[in-house]
Design a protein that fits this description.
It contains 29 helices and 24 strands. With about 850 residues, the chain is α/β, with parallel strands linked by helices. The protein folds into 4 domains: about 200 residues, Transferase(Phosphotransferase), domain 1 (Orthogonal Bundle), CATH 1.10.510; about 325 residues, Bira Bifunctional Protein, Domain 2 (BirA Bifunctional Protein, domain 2), CATH 3.30.930.10; about 110 residues, Rossmann fold; about 120 residues, no CATH class. The strands form 6 sheets. The protein has an 8-stranded mixed sheet with strand order 5-9-10-15-14-13-11-12. It has a 5-stranded mixed sheet with strand order 17-16-18-19-20, covered by helices on one side. The chain has a 4-stranded mixed sheet with strand order 21-22-23-24, with helices on both faces. The chain is elongated, with a radius of gyration of 38 Å. The relative contact order is 0.06. This is eIF-2-alpha kinase GCN2. GO terms for molecular function: ATP binding; histidine-tRNA ligase activity; protein kinase activity; RNA binding.
């Protein structure tokens, strides 16, 4: 300005446009500068504008993003006037700069000690003063500048006579428009950029944008392919490579994460869940773009897709595409992603557990009750969590609709009302008419008494009976709102009654203000919350799980994917989503007497170069016996090995020395679980000895082993040999035709093979059932024939039917005479791994 900027008007208009675009960006980020003046606007090496000095900037827009928005200006969303309790301006105030902020601040900020009410239009006013200085000749003295700028600040906007000429009519119009003392009559940045008084940009910025827009509109063109390829061919600097995913590094307790996931899988499988994973990427659509933290991506073909924001939306889309699926229970434990506010970094990774129940009709709402009961089972699986004041909040879409109608909210504004209330913390839900939330709700055009009534009802969090009593005046009326409320309460009553029948002891609170993911769930909505200390070490209510019915979500995808609703089968879905990260974090912070499972039962270590094959033979036999074993390759001193086993909770060390052939030193944790006890065993007895040690549950040794490898040889062991196959009493008998002797190692391998094959069938049997498995060294056809003829009472006649296998049939009949009539009999072909039940 001091160097005669006014003499180059082309540059003036270009710099003005860049200043406006800079203000557009900071306003879109929810920031008001409040101290805009020439010394805070910088020119870089390429003669482009950079706005700086945000010392007095405020994030008013962010704080009031959920409040009533003023749409008085075309295409721009404004916050309401906000009272500032801390800023008082006067003409004597001096700030950074040669003249001071007072000459550039908007009139609404010059309140002389009175609380100022302002919005981002204060920056437009400052821009008007700055633009005048850009267009007017340099002022030689501070006194002259003070006089002229003070005249500009008058309500009548007194301009210097030599500025108001025919050549400067554009500049005069813009200055007067920006300096209007009524903020509502000042332009927005979009109006300024679109106004004819500001010449179009002389550079190719707009042209470039139009070219890009036209190129993207034709995916088959060469320009489109070139543009997409150029995006993917960008070089990544080493700094970007290092910092991209640096925030993902975390010292997680992987053992606790795995054991917690195993517990959840057992609960999901107990309820009949089948693991099912949907595709990772889904095309970006109106629903996923509604989440601020959706992580979008682009493929090499230019398709815009998104990483899963949760596991429910991709599954609902899959159901819409596969209308034949009308009955299903599925679970999935997978990662979901949240885009960060600061771009250029890897999206946040969270581990989510989802369980969904698909039925042809909602029925008697058993699905919702089962999901809540499942949450209670999960909490009960971690006893320490019961002390965290767990609670299930529950709500219904019809209840919300009825309350909004009762409070005078028009139906077309229900989504807006839910959006405002959803972004509001529960402690802000008060009936104070002067509260911030009340001012936000003013956009709904509600009377004060309706706002008070809405806030009062939405702040309820009571038991079912108390909520019914609170809503009794509403339900007595013969209105549409009362119909919705009564329908919602009736369905909530049924869900609560069903959960009580399923033994849920967790408190269930009706919470009309529960609006989380209201655009996804269309019936019952519920949350699992508990007390958790926040970063300020204060107790806060932590949301760990959400769920509900999402029939409308499936219908939305069917409509979007153009799936005929008439031809497809009816599909109803209900599901829950649980944060595994929060569950693990809460579990690790709760004192618990149980010890995390070890990932290994035996560590094998040897001294000597000639022990390789011996080690491999031993580890092979241990693996075949179902014992989790690992081999330590590097040479370590024995104290370090023991410390490693203690920290990793490995209960057993097998130590081999080349100087002791045929022997092994077996070290096991003693009763205090802190010291190892050693004994020498023969190599041919090592596997049996290790198995006996693992089975020793009554010694009080805390080995931290999993249920999968506790028992391996007895009938109780065999039924648990493959991940708790069945609680039935299973016994395996091996019969050969010539009564040849079977080694212990071979017997163990056969038993393990048999139980693996029978696992799915054994799971269906009752715990009280006795199962006798007769394993025969014969072909599958013989097993099938023998099983089909077992109802023949004449044993001699039965033997005659198998002349080639008389000996083994006779041995089978002799063995069966010792069994009780209630025993379930299974014939098994060792040669073909085929079995046949005889009930």
């Amino acid at each position: 300005i001091d160097n005669g900027l006014c003499e180059d008007m082309a540059r003036v208009w270009r710099l003005l446009r860049e200043i406006i675009e800079g203000l557009s960006h900071i306003h879109s980020q929810g920031i008001i500068h409040r101290d805009l003046k020439p010394v805070n606007i910088f020119i870089d090496y390429d003669d482009h504008v950079k706005i700086g000095d945000f010392g007095l900037a405020t994030n008013i827009l962010q704080k009031h993003a959920a409040g009533p928005l003023s749409r008085e200006l075309t295409g721009y969303v404004l916050p309401p006037p906000v009272k500032s309790d801390t800023l008082y301006y006067s003409n004597e105030t001096s700030h950074t700069g040669q003249v001071g902020t007072a000459l550039y601040s908007a009139p609404e900020l010059d309140s002389h000690g009175v609380k100022a009410m302002y919005n981002q239009k204060v920056d437009i006013y400052s821009l008007g003063i700055i633009f005048f200085e850009m267009c007017y000749h340099p002022l030689n003295t501070n006194m002259e500048r003070m006089k002229i700028l003070s005249d500009l600040r008058l309500k009548e906007i007194k301009l210097p006579p030599d500025f108001c000429t025919a050549e400067t009519y554009r500049q005069v119009y813009i200055v007067r428009w920006c300096l209007n003392h009524d903020p509502s009559k000042r332009p927005s940045y979009e109006q300024l950029l679109a106004d004819d008084h500001i010449p179009p940009p002389q550079v190719g910025e707009t042209v470039l944008q139009d070219m890009v827009r036209q190129t993207l509109s034709n995916p088959q063109s060469k320009g489109y392919k070139y543009l997409v390829a150029a995006c993917f061919n960008q070089k990544v600097s080493p700094a970007d490579d290092i910092t991209y995913d640096i925030s993902l590094s975390r010292a997680a307790n992987f053992s606790l994460l795995e054991s917690t996931g195993d517990k959840l899988r057992r609960i999901f499988q107990l309820h009949g869940g089948v693991y099912f994973q949907t595709p990772l990427l889904t095309p970006l659509n109106r629903l996923t773009t509604g989440f601020e933290t959706t992580a979008p991506m682009m493929t090499r073909g230019g398709s815009v897709v998104s990483l899963p924001h949760d596991l429910r939306i991709p599954f609902a889309r899959y159901l819409a595409q596969n209308g034949s699926i009308v009955s299903m229970k599925r679970y999935c434990i997978d990662r979901v992603y949240r885009e960060r506010r600061v771009l250029g970094f890897h999206p946040r990774e969270l581990v989510e557990c989802a369980f969904d129940i698909v039925t042809p009709t909602p029925g008697n709402l058993m699905a919702e009750a089962e999901l809540i009961a499942m949450l209670w089972e999960i909490v009960s699986e971690f006893p320490g969590l019961l002390d965290k004041n767990c609670m299930v909040r529950i709500n219904h879409y019809h209840l919300v609709t009825g309350i909004l109608l009762h409070c005078g909210v028009e139906e077309q504004k229900h989504d807006l009302a839910c959006k405002i209330l959803r972004k509001t913390k529960s402690d802000e839900l008060s009936c104070n008419p002067n509260s911030k939330l009340s001012s936000r709700l003013s956009e709904l055009d509600l009377a004060d008494h309706n706002i008070n009534s809405l806030l009062s009802l939405m702040s309820l969090e009571l038991s079912y009976s108390k909520v019914v009593a609170q809503l009794k005046p509403l339900t007595k009326k013969n209105t549409l709102a009362a119909t919705f409320v009564k329908k919602g309460l009736k369905q909530l009553e049924l869900v609560i009654a069903n959960t009580e029948s399923l033994g849920v002891k967790c408190p269930l609170m009706i919470t009309p203000g529960l609006l989380t993911d209201i655009n996804i769930y269309s019936g019952t909505i519920f949350q699992l919350v508990w007390d958790q200390k926040n970063k300020h070490h204060r107790l806060d209510r932590e949301v760990v799980a959400v769920g509900g019915r999402y029939d409308n979500l499936i219908s939305f995808f069917k409509t979007m994917l153009d799936v005929s609703l008439d031809s497809s089968s009816p599909q109803c879905g209900a599901g829950l989503s649980l944060s595994l990260d929060k569950l693990v974090s809460a579990g690790s912070s709760v004192p618990c007497s149980s010890t995390p499972n070890s990932t290994c039962d035996v560590l094998l270590y040897s001294i000597g170069k000639g022990m390789l094959h011996t080690r491999l033979n031993i580890v092979r036999d241990l693996w075949q016996a179902g014992v989790r074993c690992t081999v330590l390759e590097q040479q370590e001193d024995f104290e370090s090995i023991q410390s490693y086993c203690l920290s990793s909770r490995i209960p057993c060390i097998v130590f081999l020395k080349e100087s002791e052939p045929g022997l092994a030193r077996l070290r096991t944790l003693g009763k205090d679980s802190n010291r190892f006890q050693e004994k020498r065993v023969q190599l041919n007895e090592l596997v049996e000895c290790v198995i006996r040690m693992i089975r020793c549950d009554n010694t009080g040794v805390n080995t931290g082993r999993s249920d999968q490898t506790r028992h391996r040889t007895t009938s109780e062991a065999r039924q648990n040999s493959v991940g708790e196959l069945s609680a039935a009493d299973v016994n395996v008998t091996l019969l050969t035709e010539n009564q040849e002797r079977i080694s212990a190692a071979a017997r163990r391998r056969y038993e393990h093979q048999i139980l693996n094959t029978l696992s799915s069938s054994l799971q269906k049997l009752s715990p009280r059932v006795k199962v006798e498995v007769v394993a025969l060294q014969v072909e599958a056809d013989f097993v099938r024939s023998l099983a089909s003829l077992m109802d023949i009472k004449d044993n001699a006649g039965l033997v005659k039917k198998f002349p080639r296998h008389k000996k083994i049939v006779t041995r089978v009949l002799e063995h069966l005479e010792s069994l009780s009539d209630s025993t379930v009999l299974v014939f098994y072909s060792i040669m073909d791994s085929v079995y046949k039940f005889v009930l």
